[in-house]
Amino acid sequence: MAEHRSMQRAALLDAARSLLSEGGTEALTFPALAERTGLARSSVYEYFRSRAAVVEELCEADFPVWAAEVEAAMAAAQDPRAKVEAYVRRQLELVGDQRHRAVVAISASELDAGAREKIRAAHGALVGMIVDVLGEMGHAEPRLAAMMLQGVVDSAVRRIELGFEEPAVVADAAVRMALRGVMG
């Protein structure tokens, strides 16, 4: 029985990712989840109490995967500048990933306090990966620099999502901004 519930929960999360990716916030409804998974609508409520609970669980499942991918890219880099570039590029490469598009589709204002806090903590862990590297590069305030660097990444994510420029163009501009500032 526990294995069946686990499989159903995973199917619901996969369906939620797809719905968010395809249609944004409006698409994530319990009737749509039920339709995608073949469950009765009332059964969906047995797994999740709200849309926020679905998103919270998506974040708990997906943020660690993204963070591990960014961390692995940084670990493969040879020097601090290359680590910064890997930090930026890997995050931007993940924009096309359905897991990323799903979570981006929901604005933090639509989530309850618990879900917002979990997202903040996950982003904080991501930012924490680059603090020491920025310290090695001589930044007097590496934590502040890391937060600002993440702002560049977040802005680049939004540009990629809008689709006005090619993702590679946005990634190159973000890396230049990260490594050389606005002069580059």
Percent helix, as a range, is over 70%
Provide the β-strand percentage band. under 5%
What's the average pLDDT?
A: 87
The count of helical stretches stands at: 9
Counting DSSP E segments of at least 2 residues, the number of strands comes to: 0
* Backbone structural class: mainly alpha
Low-confidence blocks of residues: none
Element-level helix/strand string: HHHHHHHHH
- Tell me the radius of gyration: 18 Å
What is the CA–CA distance across the termini?
Answer: 58 Å
Query: Mind describing the biggest β-sheet?
Result: none
**Shape, please?**
elongated
How would you describe what is shown here?
The chain is mainly α and 184 residues long. Helix content is 78%, strand content 0%. It is built from 9 helices and no strands. Helix 1 (2-23) crosses helix 6, helix 2 (30-37) crosses helix 3 (41-47) and helix 8 (142-162) runs antiparallel to helix 9. The radius of gyration is 18 Å and the shape is elongated. The mean pLDDT is 87.
Question: SSE layout and pairings?
Answer:
Elements: H1 2-23, H2 30-37, H3 41-47, H4 51-76, H5 80-93, H6 98-104, H7 113-136, H8 142-162, H9 167-180
Helix pairs in contact: 1-2, 1-6, 2-3, 4-5, 4-7, 5-7, 5-9, 7-8, 8-9
Offer a few descriptive terms.
single chain, 184 residues, mainly alpha, elongated
Compact summary:
The protein is mainly alpha-helical. The protein has nine helices and no strands. Helix 4 (51-76) packs parallel to helix 7.
